[in-house]
Amino acid sequence: MPYVPAVLRVTAALVGTADAEDAAQETIVRAWQAAPTLRDEGALRSWLLQIAVNLCRDWQRGRFGTRQRLNEPLLASSDVEDLALIGSDAGTSDHTGALDLRRAINTLEHDLRLVVVLRYYAEMDATEVGAALGVPAATVRTRLRRALMVLRDRLSAPHDLPTAGTAEGGQ
Amino acid sequence: MADNHDGLNGRTETESLPPELRALHQQILADGVAWRAGLPSGERVARAVSALGDRASPPVRPRPTMEIAASAASRAPSPYSHPLSRGGLSSLGALLAAALVVTLMGVLLNAMAGHPTSRPGAHLATATAAATGTPTGQWVSIARYDSGPPPSGLALFVPIVASGDPRVAYLIAGKPDGPPEIRRTDDGGTTWHLLTLPGVPDPQVIPPQGGYNLGLAVSPLDARVVFLAVEVIQHATPICAGGSTGLARQGGRPLYSSLGFASGGGVVCSLRSYYSTDGGNSWHDLRLPVPGVLGSGTATTDGVTVGVVRAQGTRLYALVSPLQNEGFSPPGRLATSVDGGASWEFIDAALSPQSQTVADYLPVPNSATLFALTSPPGYVSFHGSSWIGHQEVWRSDDGGGSWRHVGTLSYASTPSVLVAAIRRPNGAQPLLYAEPSAPALRDVGAPGMMPHDLHVSADSGHTWQAAPTDGTPASAVWESSVPGVPVSERGTSGVLADGSIVMPFAPNSGSGSADALYAWKFGDSAWHQVSPPAGGRVCSVLVAPSGPGGPEAMWVTVCSANAVAVERYTFGLS
Lengths: 171, 574
Fold this sequence. Notes:
The complex is a heterodimer of chains A (about 170) and B (about 575).
Chain A: H1 3-15, H2 17-34, H3 44-60, H4 98-106, H5 110-121, H6 126-133, H7 137-156
Helix pairs in contact in A: 1-2, 1-3, 1-5, 2-3, 3-6, 5-7, 6-7
Chain B: H1 19-37, H2 43-53, H3 66-75, H4 92-113, E1 139-146, E2 160-161, E3 169-174, E4 180-185, E5 193-194, E6 211-218, E7 226-233, E8 246-250, E9 253-261, E10 267-276, E11 284-285, E12 292-294, E13 309-312, E14 315-324, E15 327-328, E16 333-337, E17 345-346, E18 357-363, E19 370-375, E20 391-396, E21 404-409, E22 417-422, E23 431-435, E24 455-457, E25 465-466, E26 494-495, E27 501-505, E28 516-520, E29 528-529, E30 537-544, E31 553-559, E32 563-570
């Protein structure tokens, strides 16, 4: 089954590597349950990834119990999901400044960070990201471009990076 | 590294970017490749897939027309009682093949029924609809919990309102960079008291990746009787899942379990359960038969959840999740307390030899009858919710002293929850309502993508029939329910005095539309609206019975982006 790694990438990007397998597993279960609703077998990968994204966003909204870990950012709102912080828990590139890059990504506005994480780390294309988020692919490309511009500016002045968790956008 | 075709003029994604952004684009692509190289292998996912593959196909139920449904209901048991054939599938490829087969089956069934997009039709057409006309009452705002004062600046969680006195509520909350805390209000949210937590280390000495998790439940008999579980993490959370179990004892009685040990020695995780009779002002060790936590559905790496406490007369019932070598053992054991919650004893000994664990239970009011839903070993672990297999229904008429098997819920791809057990007059069998979907599985995909449904048994769990969906709004997304959690994120149903089940649905389509309450009872052919829309999306429902304190009323929590409000609807008010 070629789609499990793709699902795992999405869940790792959105809820973190520690919970990635749990969330991927749940995605598969939900897909299995919802299989009768799948009308177009050609859309299977996109459909699976959409379930994964929805599940992870629910996860980050804290819908899985009245609890909160201290080592994860607490939400300012129960209806606004946060994203896992891309960090050094998974592999880091040889690029100098990779950690600065991730730090900058983690401080992006929520909508921008979401498309960056899904595109570059979960390796979804713009069409898949758009389908998962319910926006046109063109909107995804626009957000990606805007995110790149913000990142470029921040990386050129890394000392100005805000602290993750107090990012703009009301995370 | 992937540089996708952007679909525009044959250019690659990089080429479509302004030159000044291309290098950064390539840099993030490269970092993505490195990040993905460090991801988990996914072995556990593969095991889950194998478990799924042991079942031939996902649950699918026929969608007959109204006429077909009525006759089908009379001659055939519910979909629960028809085990799916097993195809011996053992791979995700087979899983998906099965999914596609079922998809085609669904299309064919819909086409045959002439309802290409319809939801299941009326499955119980045994009586006329109990239409009540337009509700004339109004919602009254009782309390609102938001980011304003007090409790100012706290991350918001849904409050847990005490069914014994809805003016009392508990709120687990936390500051963005601090540990969680518990506050209590005795006046519907006007003032709040910060509670002192037992067994919690000084936040100043908690390591960066440590901390603690809290779980809370309130006795339905007394708003000031509170059960609390504190899981202390002195290292990164994932470590808690490993290692062996250690028990701390006091006077020969196990007090708490350590879930893991640091490689260099020392406890990294521990869990301890507490009990308070004064609203959380002071705490005592909770006396459970074994180390564990009051509640169910707990996972090893995901903190604690204190579950539902239900009452029957002066007795309390709850599930207990014992701690075992590999962490919790979901879903749990069934226990009772006859001293208001100070101590507990198991009442499921007769079920244990069957290698069953109790997944849910319900006491029938004003009787000694209990129903229990059990699961065999072997589940897909995720918050205790994604269990694959069938469940057994058991009945006890002596408060758990003895049990007899009454039925099986097969087809349950996730654990069913028991929504209500209702005593009927003249000695008739109690009504038992169940819903085949765990609370964690709501809001999947697009609205309506996976409608949940309600089943009822009039013979104590032997046979089951699906409730109709007629009368609910077309946009309704059925959410699963856990009764007995009066106001929490999990409770989305209530039971009226006449035995009707109450659930929230949005009468109008569109995101953000407010929910109204709808009711249905055994024998009705359709649901009917029993309240005007509340102030927003209803997260939970509590039905307060009529009595000296006033008429029957429905309490709900309404969840919005930045606040949770408690509202009350009293019948007959205008």
